[in-house]
Amino acid sequence: MSGHMPSVTPFMPSESLSIVLYDIRDNILLAQAFAVRLDFQTFKESRLHFYAVTRALEIISEASRHLPEEVRERHPHLPWRDIRDVGNFYRHQYDNVAESYVWSTVHDHLPRLLTAVVAEITRLGDA
Fold this sequence. Notes:
Elements: H1 13-35, H2 40-45, H3 47-64, H4 69-74, H5 80-92, H6 99-124
Helix pairs in contact: 1-3, 1-6, 3-5
C-alpha cells in the first residue's frame, strides 16, 4: 500500500443540499410505503414493518441535521429540533419506542415535512 488516499471530489453546497433533501424525501416515501396498506393493529404486530419504518425515520432525522439554517428558517412551522433529535431517541431508547408514536409520525407529521422538502428540491431546480 502506498498510503495514497483516493481523491474525493468535494460537493458543491447546492449538490450536498440536494443529496440531503433527496435522502429525506426518499425515506419519507419509503416510510409511507411501508405502512400504506396496513391498519395500525397489523403495523403494531409486524416487526418487519415497524423496524423498516423506524429505520427510515432514523435516516430522515440524521439527514435533517445537515440542512442549512436558511432551509429550516423557510419552514418555521416544522419542529426541526424534534426532527433532528428523534433519531437519537429511536437509537438509544429502542426498547421504549411505541408503535403508536411511529405510526403517528408517519401519518400525521411526515406529510408536512415532505411538502417542505419537495418545495426545497423545486427551489434548487432539481424537480
